[in-house]
Design brief:
Shape: globular
Strand order of the largest sheet: 19-18-17-16-15-14-22-21-20
Strand content: 15-25%
Number of helices: 18
Amino acid sequence: MTRGLVAAAALTLCVSPLSSQDSVAARTDYTAAAARFGAYITHEMKDKDLAAVSIVLVDKDSMVWARGFGHANPHDSIAATARTIFRVGSVSKLFTDMALMRLVERGALDLDAPITQALPDFHPANPYGGTITLRQLMTHHSGLVREPPTGSYFDSTAPPLADVVASLNRTALVYQPGSRYKYSNGALQVVGLALERAAGEPFPRYMHDSVLVPLGMTRSAFFEPGPELAPDVATAFMWASDGYRFVAPTFRRNAPSGTLYTSVLDLGKFLTALFADSNPVIGRATLERMWVPQFADSGATEGNGLGFFVSRFDGHRRVGHDGAIYGFATTLGALPDDRLGVVVVTTLDGANSVTDRIADAALRAMLAVREGKPIPEPPETSALPAGAARVAAGHYVKSGQSSPTLELLERQNELYLARNGSVVPARVRASGDTLTFDDVLTYGGSIRLFPDHVVTGSDTFARAVETPPPAAPAAWRRLFGEYGWGYETLFVYERRGALHALIEWGEDDALTRVSDSVFAFPPSSMYVGERVTFLGTRRGAATAAVAGAVTFPRRAIGPAGGGQLKVQPVRPVAELLALAQTERPPAESGSFRASDLVDLATLDPTIRFDIRYATTNNFLGSVFYSTAHAFLQRPAAEAMLRAHHELRALGYGLLIHDGYRPWYVSKTFWDATPLAQRWMVANPAHGSRHNRGCAVDLTIYDLRTGKPLDMGGTYDEATERSYPDYPVTTDLQRWRRELLRRVMEAEGFTRNFDEWWHFDYKDWRAYPILNQAFADLGR
């Protein structure tokens, strides 16, 4: 058993029994504020699809309101409460830094001595000169890379803390120590090890005995929650810009930078300790030192304190920290001079824009209660008028220039704005009589929509026709793809003629070429000053990408060999097909239009066909249709024909893969597909839009060559690439997907949420589930 595991095991024995307190009822003077905030949080949860939110408000020495909303575990309908356990990410740094200051008070450590006095073996390459100190490490001015090579944010192996810090010796400083701000999780790992060595005991044990217990935080633990707390840990969720969501990983991490498990009740105790005249961990004067901006001008009121971020909030001094870790987002904010504080936690990755906004509104409400003023209305937004997103959608360029560009995208009746082709667009919402941006990652700013132009801030962008972009540079093709792991993937792709990297699911960076295999992160990036280096490019496609100091291995994406996805049926398809033909579709009530299926081959000779289910070239490897035909209800067929005519004028045509599908075929798909893969197929108990003759699977082909266009993914492959907005595409592939979407949606079709090739006609509800075989349709 490693040293880190021993420490964690020892810690689990010391955690106090669970409290029975699920919430704190609003104190009398906060009753109105709590009621208004309950409604506001419920609104934000519905709008942002948040499973759980917990909040605590602190006034001086009291928690005046604490409760949970939604479900800590949606699968089992377990309610979120004030005692639900969350991972609070970088809020953990406040505790690590406070623990270190406890040792500074006792003379065991010196903030301004070279770190080598505490850690003699710590020596990352330093081409700039100068020495690293604890003060620099605590304020992100050390010049270290963001993540260590071993034990990084992406590392699921939980190596010992000493190994994590030792791996930084394989890195070089990005900036001269003390010269500028550069956020570094690795820096707090170094702080944690220095603390451990000076204390003479494992980090988690010291944190438990010397920080958590004195603060009364008996339902909190570093590194892992232990059996007493584990049942109350909330389930959190990850998300991608293309709409993909999945349960967040729960692997253990040995990181003083971000592994605290706690509840809002315990964090409420932390806030009360910040406001108390006598703090149980460090002296009041030391705490005030932590709130002084470092590496700033004398008298500065904003900046990096020792652990705490210091800012001004409506004229009041504010201190605190945000946290984000694998599905959890946390905001801790305190007004120390007013002795008011708030903590908000939710279970959606990176949703700090939402927790920040709730926390800001809560602090304003608390100030209003304190001053006897009306409670300010929280900043709720609403959807645009029906049809507004479709009207505004299009390509826009800076007036009088070819760049920068804006894309206004319509997605499920919502409008999104993407700057320079970013794969992380901002959602446009109504805020009173104005428009603003409001989503999981973004809030604020302004946008005005006009028939022929858009104004964002002070910039005007004119509507323009987007012509087909050129093919991506040949040298980049070996770099495109996915790197890393399913829970944390680095995407490399082309956007607006630049090589981009999407890292940590929401950080979209345009890279600058250093050499054919080395690219620099931009100044606005979380990884500013660092690079992406692609390995193995001399032999073809890159085998790995080193982002900063972390190596991301290339991931295989798409079906093996790039062809048709294959699934092993659970029983012989012929048996299941024969059985399904003896069964009847689900009964339906109501009135329906008479079916009028049209053979699409009769509409226009330039429409082409690749009917996979009339061959064995499909996911189950069996023939399902007796003839290679496709049918749609007449209104849908005529609408599709109009879309084909628009494409034909541009030199393209539609290639059809599937249309009407008899119900018994859908039943066979369901019965033949393994349970773990049934998400790929429609449940026959409800029927599908294909069964009603109102869904079509198609792509675009080149009229001149007769060949299908490369759309950045193959038909029916059922991988993440199938999502319409999947990021790993070139400009040209993305343009083609958008072209197909535009011409089809203009004729009343809606693209399927997770299949770029699948379109449903608007009147599908008007038709019944059908079960006629193709042979019967022919007669």
